[in-house]
Amino acid sequence: MDTSFLATGPIAWVQVFALAIFLVSLGKLADWVVGKVKGGTAAAVSPLTIDMAAVKIQVAAQNEALHNFKVEVARTYVTGDVITRMERRIDDLVTSMREEMAATRREMLQAITGRRPD
Q1: Distance set, CA 72 to CA 17, 61, 62, 75, 106 (Å)
Q2: Cα–Cα distance between 115 and 118 in angstroms, integer?
Q3: Residue 20: HSE in the Cβ half-sphere, 13 Å Cα cutoff
Q4: CA 52 → CA 23, 44, 46, 47, 60, distances in Å?
Q5: Which ranges does the record mark as transmembrane (predicted)?
Q6: Rounded distance, CA 100 to CA 110, Å?
Q7: What is the pLDDT of residues 49-88, one digit of tens each?
Q8: pLDDT at site 1
Q9: CB 49 within 8 A of CB 43
Q10: Dihedral, CA atoms, 82, 85, 87, 92, nearest 10 degrees?
């Protein structure tokens, strides 16, 4: 069995420098990973993060209070005639759209077939 490739030989300065650079970069990588892990933990419990979460909760509570106020105003101050007028306007809008669609359909059929639809 040929084991000549396992024989030790002289180490060149290039190999020594490459090993040193590799070990230094490995140490820096480990330091960077530890810094990221500790940094994420510190940011999760920082007072600014806690204050921001509290503000978000307050904003959500105020949004809900505003919604409840709008509902209460609508129940108290919107009268039946306002709703009737809105319903009438919606009905007029739907009727107008139907008439426009019917006219468009008639014009398209006449343009395609060349004769007026019955």
Answers
A1: 77, 16, 15, 5, 48
A2: 9
A3: 6
A4: 42, 11, 10, 8, 12
A5: 12-30
A6: 15
A7: 788 888 899 999 999 999 899 888 888 877 777 888 888 9
A8: 58
A9: yes
A10: -160
In the chain, where are the structural domains located? 12-45, 46-77, 79-118
Backbone angles phi, psi at 79, to 5 degrees: -90, 170
Residue with tokens 């993060």: 49
Give the residue carrying structure tokens 């019955």: 118
Task: Kindly write down the DSSP assignment for every residue of the chain, as one continuous string.
Answer: ---GGGS--PPPHHHHHHHHHHHHHHHHHHHHHHHHHHHHHHHHT-HHHHHHHHHHHHHHHHHHHHHHHHHHHHHHH--HHHHHHHHHHHHHHHHHHHHHHHHHHHHHHHHHHSS---
What tokens were used for 45?
A: 């419990």
pTM, to two decimals: 0.33
